[in-house]
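Deliverable D4.2, example record:
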Amino acid sequence: MSRLIAIALLSLLLGTAPVAGAASALGAGDNQPSAGSVSGKTYVGMTISHDAPGGNHYLGAKACAGCHEDEYAGWKETFHSTVVQDARANPSAILADFTLEDLPFTRDEVEYTIGLHWDQRYMKKIGKEYYVLPRLWAVQSKEWRPYSVWSWKRKPYSKYCAGCHTTHYNPEKRTIADEGVSCEECHGPGELHVAGGGDPKEIINPSKLDKARGNMICASCHVRGTDKSGKYYFPVGFMPGEDLADYYIPLEMKEGESVDDAISRIYGEWENKMTNSSRAKCEVCGITGQKTDGKKDPDTMDFCFSCHDFRAKMPLHTRHPNTVKLVCNDCHVKRGKDLNKGLSGNIHSYSYFLVHTQNCYDPRIQKACAKCHTDKPDAENWALDLINSWKKPVFVGH
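Output generated by the structure prediction step:
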């Protein structure tokens, strides 16, 4: 089936009026990365193009949402979807305080941001290339820190970063298939999949690959290395489902180790670190349901309010006066570790790319209520009825 027919099908699926070119189904005008890329648009000095080897073209993340609404919504909750943001189109993406100290660059110079929750880096164009500037903003501690101070001008974004912050970057043509790390970066181009009515044989499903080959999709960005030429710090030309060792050489190979073994070892180390790291789990914000030295930890509140800016509305949010001195983890209590089992929605990414893991806290707030309101008969059900009577017990001020 031709590409135009596939685009027409997508227009029907997405409820958009067909217009000339691939943009008909891909939604121009979204500022959030990967909400829907438009062929021909420029992004960090690269042009969006849906071309791909073999004639199976890319379509962009929003095209996937037509059939995979839950997966698309879940993906938008991950850091993959917002890894790079256009600061000119969306000035609120800049989180740093530029009044704190003398800096080697100004807020007005920032054209793109990298990162959103832990550290945020900033880019500007110098000549024909974009560069990551030599200070980063630590989002949680709200402070500036040095970043690549001595070498940043020798590290153009297009050679060191772009391959892992975009979808299907072609450095020779300076094109990408989509903004951000979107669906097709891990599943491959989707045109034939759509043209075949969702034919599963025409799309890569990492879970259907053998474990080593499936892990290579993640390892292509989460193992530090270079392409075979040594020029780029990402595997140029690699496609999901292929053998990463044909495209990539890890930087930290051991003597006598094969490329395949090195990739497997380094990726395994990274995955274990991410899985077990307190930085990636609920412990980072103190949602443990416990107290420190018998006292409530105020740092928990500071962490939560760094995103949920409603400190002044706490009584409205909790339905308790400030004199009660509730903290977030009094009600939002950590629960078990089965990240995706029996939960609503479909977070289509590893949980550590979420600000909150899917099971970050037990949504059954009534269980926490019952621990304090012991004077109520059948306290859990009493609390549940009360919570349900509130119009927005959870989302006030979020």
